[in-house]
Amino acid sequence: MQKSTTSSIHTLKKGQVEILNSFLEGIHHKTKVLKRNAFGCRRLPESIRPKRTNRKSEVM
Q1: What pLDDT score does 49 carry?
Q2: Residues 6+ apart with CB under 8 A from 12
């Protein structure tokens, strides 16, 4: 195998748990949105909506 392929495989194995967790979290989020839409809730109320941050200002 080439060095880059071996390195990629090693990185995927090392981050396997994080990759799986992010995948499952995505499924969980889609399920929540689907359930909300099924009950006719198009948008989250302001009181429970996650706060958005301006990432550009955080970097500077």
Answers
A1: 67
A2: 19
pLDDT-derived band at 55 (thresholds 50, 70, 90) equals low
Would the pTM of this model clear 0.90, i.e. be above it? no
Count Cα atoms within 13 angstroms, Cβ side, for 7.
3
Token pair in block for residue 13: 């194995």
Report pLDDT digits (tens) over 14-42.
Answer: 999 999 999 999 999 999 888 888 877 66
- Tell me the C-alpha distance between 60 and 53, whole Å: 13
Cα-only R_g, the chain: 19
User: What separation in angstroms does the CA of 33 have from each of 8, 15, 27, 40, 54?
Assistant: 34, 27, 10, 11, 24
